[in-house]
Amino acid sequence: MSGPIDLLEWAARHASGTRPLVVTSDAALDFDDLSWLVDRRCDRFADDGIRAGTVHPLTVAPDLSSLLSLLALWRMGVTPAPLNAGLTRGERERAVELLASAVAGPQAILWTSGTSGTPRGVALSADNLLGSAEAVAKRLDLSVEDRWLASLSPAHVGGLALLTRPFLLGGSLVLPGTVAPERVARLLSRAGFPPGTGGPVTHMSLVPTQLIRLLDHLGGAPPPPSFRCLVLGGAHTPAALLERALSGGWPVALTYGMTEMSSQVCTAAPDTVREAPGSVGRPLDGVEVRIAPGGEVLTRGRTMAIGYVGDPAPLAGPDGWYRTGDLGHVDEEGRLWVTGRRSDRIITGGVTVSVREIEEALRVHPDIADVAVAGIPDAEWGDVVGAVVVPVEGTFDLDAVDAWVREQVGPPRRPRRWCLVAAIPLNANGKVDRKQVRALLDTP
Question: Band of the pLDDT at 16, cuts 50, 70, 90?
């Protein structure tokens, strides 16, 4: 296995004069500026005893310091293992312990969100990231004039792809310092930048929670004409949220992906989203998708990761397909529709019900701002449906909501346990933490 590539030197292939590669809240940095800063960070790392041919875990954020650290480690021939600042102390200790035995050589090792079990380290090669970047660029018609907002942590595969894409293909990376809605709103206009740093953000990737907060802040205002594409993924997008964004004039590209496939597997460009709202589109170039008996989504291709850290078993089965754990179907146009996760099915009294289906039904109620559903063990039924609900501001009449639900869904799908919270528990990657949801519902 070859070692990691120097991403900044790769960027020199398409660097153009003083065109900024990175824009911060107060400066625009071209190739020479970044190279000088990266060399200084290399010196610091060398003084700390970091050497080529090793794996180095580090906590990261979508900021300039984290970017410089990653670029410096790659320049030194070190494999970075970015860790999310949102990891608990126990999760971080476990990750560092496992990474101590990891083999150097991959471009990066990412810690998964653990939505289907225990979080794991996934080794990605430089070719994985390049293949993903090239395929996304073709699907979304990207150019070197694009200005991408670094809106996700580079400990998340979507955030790492955001960070590496401009260096692999061209374009500029905007580091906002904070992804608070008011800051993002300003960066969508030229007013958000100091003189000499160029135009506004043209592209960004958000998870649904971030989009909700941004739309709430903007109060229905449409994006400026300069904004070209909002890539939405990382978690299920509720139908009501998608409709809200589309009716507000946002050019949404729905995407479906995972760490094991170096980010995006399928992406529906904005025109496809308008034609078939809810579909995540066709597979990217170099990636294949098929549906197994029982409805599980399988995938394979150039972007499939090297493997899991500490696990010699290949990601793919003997037939070369990676089992995603997601459920879905492909329509006659070849577009994928993801309908849920195998682990998000609840069997209650012998009836199989979908977590996503119940959540969508509950979100229709005007007094429910957000909801997460999970199966709770029950001596009589095996499992029963439980719902953790974020009520809208004001009075919340649980009895009235429960009576309404009885009229909307059949008995197996009706929540038998309720819990009211201020916010749905999320894991470090911004996805619903089903373990915490179950714990809340299990609490007397």
Answer: low
Residue 206 in contact with residue 151, Cβ under 8 Å?
yes
Radius of gyration (C-alpha) of the chain in whole angstroms: 22
| Inter-residue contact 258 to 431 (CB < 8 Å) | no
Residues 49 and 117 in one domain: yes
CA distance 176 to 157: 19
Contacts of 185 (CB under 8 A, 6+ apart): 192, 214, 217, 218
Per-residue H/E/C for 110-126: EECCCCCCCCCEEEECH
Question: Do 96 and 205 fall within a single domain?
Answer: yes
Distance separating alpha carbons of residues 88 and 7, to the nearest angstrom: 30
Q: Which of 60-74, 101-115, 190-204, 293-307 has the weakest average pLDDT?
A: 190-204
Length in residues, the chain = 444
Extract the tokens encoding 10.
């790769």
Per-residue pLDDT, 328: 93
Give Cα 293 distance to the centre of its chain. 27
The type of residue at 340 is G
Q: What's residue 194's pLDDT? A: 65
Whole-number Å distance between alpha carbons of 107 and 127: 9
281 inside domain: yes
Neighbours of 182 (CB within 10 A): 11
Whether 141 maps to a domain, the answer reads yes
What single letter denotes the amino acid at residue 276? A
Structural domain that includes position 404: 349-442
Average pLDDT over every residue of 306-334: 91
DSSP assignment, residue 25?
Answer: S
CB-based contacts of 295, cutoff 8 Å, min separation 6: 327, 328, 329, 339
pLDDT digits (tens, 9 = 90+) for 253-302: 999 999 999 999 999 999 999 999 999 999 999 999 999 998 999 999 99
Compute CA 219 distance to the chain's CA centroid, rounded to the nearest angstrom.
25
pTM equals: 0.81
